[in-house]
Specification:
The protein is α+β, with helices and mostly antiparallel strands. The protein folds into two domains: 61 residues, no CATH class; 27 residues. It is built from three helices and three strands, in the order ααβββα. The chain has a three-stranded antiparallel beta sheet with strand order 1-2-3, with helices on one face. A hairpin with a 2-residue loop joins β2 and β3.
Length: 97
Amino acid sequence: MWSILALGAVERIIHHVIDLDAITRIQLNQLQGQLLRVVIDSPQLSVDVFFDENKLEYWEAHLSDASRQYQHLTWWEAEQIQKAIKTVEKQHLQLSL
């Protein structure tokens, strides 16, 4: 819980600092739609930073054992793998009926 509160405080400070510099704001706006994942080993913390126009959004992220296999893939690559797995499972289910 403390990490979430600290993250909120850090987010406010970062937004304030970025808003003081128009050039930084323009450069960050060019990253709109991109994702930056920050992983810290000690203390163990993973944060996803989503770049959106005129703002940054932060999410505390945790990898489950099931999702670790996708940790080095893009969202699109992981989605394609999931679709392929579901297609094979569906075909297998139809063959067993």
